[in-house]
Specification:
Cytochrome Bc1 Complex, Chain D, domain 2; Oxidized Rhodanese, domain 1; five-stranded parallel β-sheet; three-stranded antiparallel β-sheet
């Protein structure tokens, strides 16, 4: 049996998260920008990653000198990891939205600096799903990966790759690139000449199944809620949100409303494939580019709270929310931290729902 998995990031997510045109990521930095980024690195990163970016100084923090890592991880994975951290590992979130000390501009500057220090061109990675035999991947992982990464991905010599936050929001291509090309300057050697294509695809697929925890689950492609099910807890009272700037609800307040089973509608404004991979349970996929008149025809007009969220962390959700306000909807809000922040805080999501079960030939 084979399973197919959807990647996490999109060009639009990268564009919005960086809060600047994407081409700016590849322009040379000024001396002032470079010096400021270098100072930020020493202040925030050197303790674990080393003063020379050599890695593994503390808490199994990986080398940031690896050409492989920079080629596959710049800019998307680096931006997300610095900004939102890795829940369940010592890597905390540094974004202001998450209570960290760095603005998005500072994170973007640090990301560019890290890439310039290595000096490699970003790899042209596809965000198409990787299809692989999970059973073969599990066996291959046991034969070749356990010694460094641990029986449950907890990390031994190498970093923890069983981290659900990382796996649920990291593209298949990024995982596969690391397996094929290794991480130069570390114990992670390239496996492209040692493993077959089927084995590499299998390990990639096996790791993706661990997005909801290391114990195997058997999720299948989830259908979006029917319009009659869009209102969560229809017989319950409304949440009592206190909004920031009359627009934004905090992840903590939204979690409380979810746990208290309050009446509301949750709109996931990302591409539907990313909703399939990980979403707040009960949310309705409503991509920012959809025809509003068609979708909003099914939304309640009685003042039920409608909370929109996206990944970047707010631009797409703000766009949808603005249109809802224009159309006269009352009690609308945007999740301040976005789903990246929601995941980084350890709040619950439905993950691993992007699996498409196929019969092996």
């Amino acid at each position: 049996m084979k399973r197919r998995f959807f990647g996490a990031a999109t060009f639009w997510a990268v564009f919005v998260l960086t809060a600047a045109p994407l081409q700016a990521q590849f322009e040379d930095m000024s001396a002032e920008e470079s010096n400021a980024a270098a100072a930020d690195y020493q202040k925030y990163c050197a303790l674990c990653h080393g003063t020379e970016r050599e890695g593994y100084v503390n808490d199994q923090a990986p080398s940031l000198r690896s050409e492989s890592l920079m080629a596959s991880g710049y800019p998307t994975e680096l931006l997300y990891t610095i900004g939102y951290g890795r829940r369940g590992t010592p890597m905390g979130a540094f974004s202001e939205e998450m209570g960290g000390p760095m603005s998005r501009e500072e994170i973007r500057r640090l990301t560019r600096w890290l890439n310039e220090q290595v000096g490699v061109e970003p790899a042209d990675l596809s965000y198409e799903p990787v299809t692989g035999d999970v059973g073969l991947g599990e066996k291959t992982y046991g034969d070749h990966c356990v010694k460094c990464h641990g029986a449950q991905g907890e990390g031994e010599i190498g970093p923890a790759i069983g981290n659900p936050a990382m796996l649920s929001l990291t593209s298949d291509a990024f995982l596969k690139y690391a397996i094929e090309n290794g991480r130069d300057g570390t114990e992670m050697r390239p496996f492209r000449d040692q493993l077959s294509v089927d084995e590499i695809n299998g390990v990639t697929a096996f790791l993706r199944t661990r997005a909801s925890g290391w114990k195997m689950k058997m999720p299948v492609l989830e259908s979006p809620p029917a319009p009659e099910d869009w209102i969560l807890n229809p017989e319950s009272p409304a949440p009592e949100f206190v909004l920031k700037d009359d627009t934004y609800v905090s992840a903590n307040d939204l979690l409380r409303a979810v746990q208290e089973k309050r009446r509301m509608v949750l709109l996931d404004t990302r591409v539907t494939s990313t909703w399939q991979m990980a979403h707040i349970e009960g949310s309705v996929p409503m991509p920012y580019y959809d025809d509003f008149d068609t979708v909003t025809a099914n939304l309640p007009t009685d003042g039920t709270w409608i909370v929109s969220y996206c990944e970047c962390p707010r631009a797409a959700a703000e766009s949808v929310n603005s249109e809802l306000v224009k159309q006269g909807f009352q009690n609308t809000a945007v999740l301040w931290e976005g789903i990246q922040g929601w995941v980084a805080l350890g709040y619950p999501v439905s993950v691993g729902q992007s699996t498409v079960m196929e019969t092996a030939p």
